[in-house]
Amino acid sequence: MAKVVAIANQKGGVGKTTTAVNISACIAYLGKKVLLVDMDPQGNATSGAGIEKGEVDKCIYNLLVDDVEIKDIIRPGSVDNLSVVPATIQLSGAEIELVSTISREVRLKNALRDVIKDYDYIIIDCPPSLGLLTINALTASDSVLIPVQCEYYALEGLSQLLNTVRLVQKHLNHELAIEGVLLTMLDARTNLGLQVIEEVKKYFREKVYKTIIPRNVRLSEAPSHGLPIISYDARSKGAEVYLDLAKEVVASG
Ligand code: ADP
Ligand code: MG
């Protein structure tokens, strides 16, 4: 049975997609079978994992709204052991269309049931909002991994996210846990980053991963080549830290 982990934070640009793609590829590299599920209409996880969005005819939209089978949507990713449920811009309509649909919050959970035995990990990249797409992701997940960017106001907005997590726990998914909090885009040249680390650790304590993701230009280049960092530049700092993170996640069970 796969462990299902949502990568969520309603703030944009905090490193959700970078983390979803690279943690998926690194866990796959460690020999586990991984399914990366793209729940963001921007489809950046899809292209970052090596899938040409223009060539996708059926995407996660069809699974959520049209009840197309997940097995008809899954595609191989750009590394061994990695498969992808792609998203295209079509998904942007789903948030509104789902409102009037029966069991609208559990559609992803129900769809994943068909393949949950085929994978060790299912990683879900969430959009930058707390709407129905993120609710579907949280309802389908065992846990949520929260990337937090090392910048001023790092904790701003997190109470809203945690509140949504509590609501999902209460009404839709009693088992949902906080997998961990990941500090991202640390700029080692400034003291600010270190202050943010202290602040986040004070609040989330042992939930904060030992691995901290620094700013690394190779991480921002890799997506335009459709490659995760371990394929794009295995010797970069970015590859090293995401592999460390993957090991931490796998070790925690
Ligand atoms: P989100 O999915 O939360 O919106 P992204 O993962 O797309 O965030 O990251 C936002 C931007 O920052 C992207 O252009 C990405 O390539 C870049 N980025 C993410 N993490 C890093 C990093 N550690 N170092 C350098 N650039 C990064
Ligand atoms: Mg994203």
TrEMBL record:
Where is the signal peptide, in residue numbers? none
Known InterPro entries for this protein? AAA_dom (IPR025669), DNA_Partitioning_ATPase (IPR050678), P-loop_NTPase (IPR027417)
List the SUPFAM superfamilies hit by this protein, alphabetically: P-loop containing nucleoside triphosphate hydrolases
Catalytic activity from the UniProt record: ATP + H2O = ADP + phosphate + H(+)
Q: Where is the AAA domain?
A: 2-178
Which family does this protein fall into?
Belongs to the ParA family.
Describe, as the record does, how this protein assembles with itself and its partners.
Dimerizes in the presence of ATP but not ADP; ATP-binding is required for double-stranded (ds)DNA-binding. Interacts with DnaA.
The protein's name in its UniProt record: Sporulation initiation inhibitor protein Soj
